[in-house]
Specification:
Elements (H helix, E strand, L loop, with lengths): L1 H32 L3 H28 L3 H10 L5 H22 L14
Helix pairs in contact: 1-2, 1-4, 2-3, 3-4
Length: 118
């Protein structure tokens, strides 16, 4: 789960930064000065990397046993500037708490009985 968290966090930061650049730099350049080069470059990159964010969020959510509602909210957070960082913060907090709980209470090994008659 630790590696899935790292993958998710990297994608959340990358997608979040691209979305901020797209909305705070690219959109004004396009609609005020008529230059759409930043929108084109960051928009395409954001779109593709957003899909990778969804995949990493689903992977992490499956491992952390999140509800579908939580996964949907995390996915939607990637479409609103700055909210990606908030979602990443709470996701990281939840996963780190689960990792600490798992470390404090390790699962007992399963004892398999071998019955020679069967």
């Amino acid at each position: 789960m630790r590696n899935a968290l790292i993958r998710y966090r990297v994608m959340a930061y990358v997608v979040g930064v691209l979305l901020i650049v797209l909305t705070c730099v690219g959109m004004p350049l396009k609609y005020v000065w008529g230059n759409d080069s930043v929108v084109t470059a960051t928009g395409i990159a954001h779109g593709w990397l957003y899909m990778l964010l969804i995949i990493t969020a689903i992977d992490l959510g499956r491992r952390a046993r999140w509800s579908w509602l939580r996964l949907l909210l995390i996915a939607l957070a990637g479409t609103v500037p700055f909210v990606t960082f908030v979602a990443e913060h709470y996701a990281t907090k939840d996963v780190k708490a689960k990792l600490a709980e798992d470390a404090a209470h390790p699962a007992e090994p399963e004892i398999v009985s071998v019955d020679p008659q069967h």
